[in-house]
Amino acid sequence: MALGRFHLKNFLPRTLYGRALLIIISPLILLQIVSTWIFYDRHWDSITWRLVSGISGDIAMVLDRMYDAPEKTEDLFESAQANMGLELILRPGEILPNEPADDANGLIHSLLAKALGERVKRPFRIDSRSFRQEVVVDVQLAEGVLRVIVPGNRVFSSTTYIFIMWMVGTSLVLFAVASVFMRNQVRPIRRLATAVDSFGKGREADADVKPEGALEVRQATQAFNLMSERIRRQVRQRTDMLSGVSHDLRTPLTRMKLQLAMLGKDPEIAELKENVSEMEKMIEGYLTFARGEGGEQSLETDLTELVSDIGDQWKRDGASIDTHVEGHIVTWVKPDAFKRCIDNLIANANRYADNIWVRAGRRGDAIEVTIDDDGPGISEDQREDAFRPFVRLDRSRNPLTGGTGLGLSIARDIARVHGGELFLEDSPHGGLRARIRLPL
Predict the structure, then answer these.
(1) Domain spans of the chain?
(2) Does residue 396 have a pLDDT over 60?
(3) Burial of 85 (0-12, 13-18, 19+ CB in 10 A)
(4) Which long-range contacts does 200-205 make (Cβ < 8 Å, 24+ apart)?
(5) What's the number of CA atoms in the CB half-sphere (13 Å) around residue 417?
């Protein structure tokens, strides 16, 4: 049976905040483990051994005094009760059972047994099941069994719980402080990520991102602000330049059209008029492609209404088109640019196909608009070339039909301005599918 490969990154939190907290929590947990190990391996054993050694020494002393002065046994028991906290009961004639105690493997039991074996050197039996309240030690004597009831505070140290509470409590306090600190440090990064994502989707911000947080985050924010400003300035300069070019080119074309209109209706003049008109269309297409709709602002747009209106307009123009939008879709787009993107794709399909199908809907974390047709389609090895400006696929498309080879280029440019992408695929209707995917 094949086993998947183990990758540590699959078990790490995906967010920066989660990974930062993991970096903080891991040393705390490791510190607690090491501290606990050292405490139980050193402190617990040492403290417990000292406690049980003291108890064993007291019991040994009591036994020696009993043999030295048997007549003072009662006074000895009272003194042990008052000064050592030991309750002593002599049971004449009793014999210890041979069965070991139930908790013979306990730490307190084993250490106390070892201490009693070294000090008392007589048969004994220990009952430490309730060691927090008391520990019962039965010692076999010649005249019977001496029961020694040891209070729990003499064999059990409360420092264990105090240590654990302090360790856990301080860890929680440190974790809370670190969480607040990391949240304040991560917030500027999240704000910067949101601004970058919005800028990549063509959604212009009202103001620059405020530099906050650590030095590196502030530097990254300042670099992003400078970059976005340079890009916006270049777009404005390009748009202004193209507006001037458009004016300069249209002025002589207008004069040429007027002069041709005054020359009469000769066949050669008519042919010149067609050339001038074709040139005007080509210049308009080139300028539209180069401009890229950079000056239009993104607006919260009802795509359901926009796509439906486009389909209705094409129906009125005589196209065989079926439009369907799944649910109600509202998102941020540049309305005129996005409408031009869909118009270009529909015009491209209408030029070579008899029927067109337009579909729009949500697909996971994105919006998809598909334009299918039943035309000849484009072979897979030529689809990327179809996006190149001014390229016409003569082998797959009729060279006598209109177009300057800019429709798909403009459509892809507009999709990318919105942070999305345009794909060409095989249509289930036998022709070409153009699929626009926009992130939400």
Answers:
(1) 16-157, 296-439
(2) no
(3) middle
(4) 200/419, 201/298, 201/332, 201/418, 201/419, 201/420, 201/438, 201/439, 202/298, 202/333, 202/334, 202/417, 202/418, 202/419, 203/298, 203/332, 204/232, 204/297, 204/298
(5) 29
Taking a C-beta distance cutoff of 8 angstroms, is the pair 362, 356 a contact? no
- Which CATH number applies to 16-157? 3.30.450
By residue count, the chain amounts to 440
Q: How far apart are CA 264 and CA 266, in angstroms?
A: 6
The reply to whether 16-157 and 296-439 are identical in fold is no
pLDDT at 398: 43
The pLDDT of 226-235, averaged and rounded, is: 80
10 or 363, greater pLDDT? 363
pLDDT tier at 433 (50, 70, 90 boundaries)? very high
Predicted confidence (pLDDT) at residue 341 exceeds the cutoff of 80: yes
Question: What is the rounded CA–CA span in Å between residue 198 and residue 216?
Answer: 21
Instruction: Write the CB contacts of 42 (distance below 8 Å, at least 6 apart in sequence).
Output: none
The pLDDT value recorded for residue 391 is 67
Place of tokens 């009961």: 89
Give pLDDT, residue 423.
93
Residue 388's closest CA among 407, 373, 364?
A: 407
Which residues lie below 8 Å from residue 285, measured CB to CB, with a gap of 6+?
404, 406, 410
Rounded Cα–Cα distance for residues 36 and 15 (Å)? 31
CA separation for the pair 31, 41 (Å, rounded): 15
For domain 296-439, the CATH superfamily is Histidine kinase-like ATPase, C-terminal domain (3.30.565.10)
Single-letter amino acid, residue 258: L
pTM: 0.51
pLDDT at 282 over 90: no
